[in-house]
């Protein structure tokens, strides 16, 4: 500690790496006092003039404002307010071009001065020691003071540090060519600057205060020496002139010999640095309650007839300052905000002055290179030799052109202070600093996007966790509610019984819906569970059952009636012998009539009460055929005599049993009967009909023998219809003859064939009913199992 102070007192300082000695050109403005300018016609106040975010607007278009009135408020630590530089009216609030190398636009407040320059109410403080440290910090923050050396870092954050401070360094070097703003400020306001230094001393409590100033400012050095001669804690350090000795890390190296590592702030080493203009603004804010609304700006260059330093209100357009200093612009108007080394070209003359603006340079056309063409790097290495941050400028430039941002960060791009020394010595005229600035802006933009993405991810994770918590809470709530309902239902009360009934009914409805949906999906709509069937389906099933039972009853009645009729005929006329041709037809007609009567009795209806159906028509046709046949036989044989079985017939043929009568015998018997002319014609018709019926019967028998097994009979009406169906184009008599001939050809008694068919139909109906009953039983068992399983799950 003592060695550093001893070296400073002897005037021995350390040296930093690199650096250059460009022409100073300070003589253009260092011999003229600071000039006060009249109010401009319009002021453009950018909302953000520092590192960080802009404040929240407090004014609107059309509002009247006073000098020093805040236009925004600081809502976060890294925000600073801006104030009205004079009294006037808010004419507009919109985006406008601001002081930035890219010429971007930001939100600005437009003020039209009223010329009265009226102040808001201020509270002057004669002794800052009467204020607490927090009150002083709040005054600095409300004044909107930021670092005026070019960085624009909020001052109230730098002065509100609690760690022990070894050195408070006041930067008065002002090493860049042309700029003399700090030089003139020190000359004219040294006492106010020292007041600001004392306030900083009161806040930070440093061990030593070092004022670093280059030896090319003798008048400013003398003014500071006189102002601090009674302030033992302050050490005035006059350092050699070398660019960029005014850089933060470079000045720390020169005064203390300490290297600030990459990525480390000087506060970590116990060092705080403030600009000389910032000290003046702190004194104005704390003692006079004056916010930062103006600053000293060097307006210089050979294109100006009256270059000088001026007090410029923040928001003053560049064009107005140039007019006040006698700007004589040519065809190639080239304006620079800042010095020639670290400044940037302006896209417009309407750019406003901001808190970090210390110089406005207007060079002559002869000072600007005509053709500044970039050529390939020759790898001379001069840029690396003069770099004060000990970087590799050529590699940085290659990575910047390739947009290799990870490599740029490995090469410590952000340690570059944009001093421009590398570009100044480059023989290839490569604008290295411009590449670095663009790369820094792009990296910062990517970092902002990554930060936003990270915040969005955090919000998503928080939302997901919240939804999970809400889901668990709902499940727990439902579980408790279900347990409460179950407990209430288990109580022996009427309410519990009604609740159980409601639950059972709901479960039954659910099961019914499931069963109906399953039946529809599998296509088994005809096999519907009786517990879940609709009224229409139930009625259809009942109707089918009644039809089957009715068919079985009719078949039994017909069989019994046929047997009774046969027995009665045998008892009443044993001596009468019927021919084979007439006996089957008679029996068929009688059985048919008895079956119809039995069916009428079963149905409880008479023939007069309902219209004739197909079977009744067939029966009527058979009856008519029978009558015709009998009348023909009576006309042919007027007095039949009983014939003994042993007596030969008129034809001379041996007697045969009626059951074994063949077709030939029937034909010969009919041919031998004596008939008259009328009877012979009828007999011929009957024989022709019988022959036709025989042929059709034989063809049907052959077809049935070749076809598949007999089709399933759904009802008794279908079986009877198939037995008595007429052939197309035949009359009622022909139908009777066809039925008789088919019976004769088959060689079986008509009642035996009928009984066999009825028995087959009954057996098929029984089998089908049994299958349906088994299917219904299975469905009932399945439904009962599902109900039991559902009840078991509910009880659990």
From TrEMBL:
Keywords: 4Fe-4S, Cell inner membrane, Cell membrane, Electron transport, Iron, Iron-sulfur, Membrane, Metal-binding, Repeat, Translocase, Transport. It is a peripheral membrane protein. [4Fe-4S] cluster 2 binds at residues 387, 416, 419, 422. Residues 544-554 have a biased composition (Low complexity). Residues 367-397, 407-436 form the 4Fe-4S ferredoxin-type domain. It is found in: Cell inner membrane. Residues 467-486, 584-616, 771-796 have a biased composition (Basic and acidic residues). HAMAP family: RsxC_RnfC. Belongs to the 4Fe4S bacterial-type ferredoxin family. RnfC subfamily. The complex is composed of six subunits: RnfA, RnfB, RnfC, RnfD, RnfE and RnfG. This is Ion-translocating oxidoreductase complex subunit C. It comes from Thalassomonas haliotis. The gene is rsxC.
